[in-house]
Design goal:
With 98 residues, the protein is an all-alpha fold. The chain is 79% helix and 0% strand.
Length: 98
């Protein structure tokens, strides 16, 4: 029975990292990795939510900053007139400089 439950959790990156976020809600890495799974699934809005949570938990997470910037750039590629994405890239870029 346990083996079958683990297979469901390990079905894909999204299910794996979603499960880990539930079990470790105060750690940044699971949120960042869940964001990556969503990013590669082109679920950009949800990916940004996860990257922002990773940054709340670990404001010095360079990986989360860089992925958030990449995600906003991808949004701009899909929606070139998206002013919010442009503003967020600028803000995050400034935050990245420690």
């Amino acid at each position: 029975m346990t083996f079958n439950k683990r297979n469901i959790v390990w079905k894909d990156n999204f299910s794996l990292w979603s499960d880990i976020v539930k079990k470790s809600p105060n750690k940044a890495r699971p949120y960042n990795n869940l964001g990556l799974a969503l990013f590669y699934n082109n679920d950009l809005d949800k990916a940004l939510v996860e990257f922002r949570q990773a940054l709340r938990l670990n404001p010095r997470s360079e990986k989360a900053y860089l992925k958030a910037i990449e995600t906003y750039r991808k949004v701009l590629g899909l929606e070139p007139a998206n002013v919010r994405a442009k503003d967020r890239i600028e803000k995050i870029s400034k935050e990245l400089i420690w």
